[in-house]
Amino acid sequence: MGLLHPKPVDILSILSHFSLVFLKAQNHILIMRGVSTTLIIIVTVIVILISAIVVLTIFSDALWPIVDITQARSTCIQQAGATCLAVGKLPTTWDAQFYYKEGDTKKLGSCKTFYPSCKCEDNSLVDCTLA
Fold this sequence. Notes:
single chain, alpha+beta
């Protein structure tokens, strides 16, 4: 019987095999880290958007103020008088819609809604009676 000689071991092939396994594992960890980072970013963006919608809903009256009908009529006639005197015509916002409150009801209207026959002639208001 002869002596059993172990097979020669190629150290370089073993090291290259382990380095490939290590690189694959490291690559997998980087991919998973990238996926989790992407998910965190997406969830953060969704939370921010939902928060913005809630805040805008809560403060929507501040964006479009609702004035009392008396204040709305007064503002319309003051703007019409000043613009007519200065430029010789009604304000460009005469037909612009805004919200006003009549009692407990919120309504949409314009200055033209309140004063439909109002005109500007010779730099003075004519026929501005309430509708």
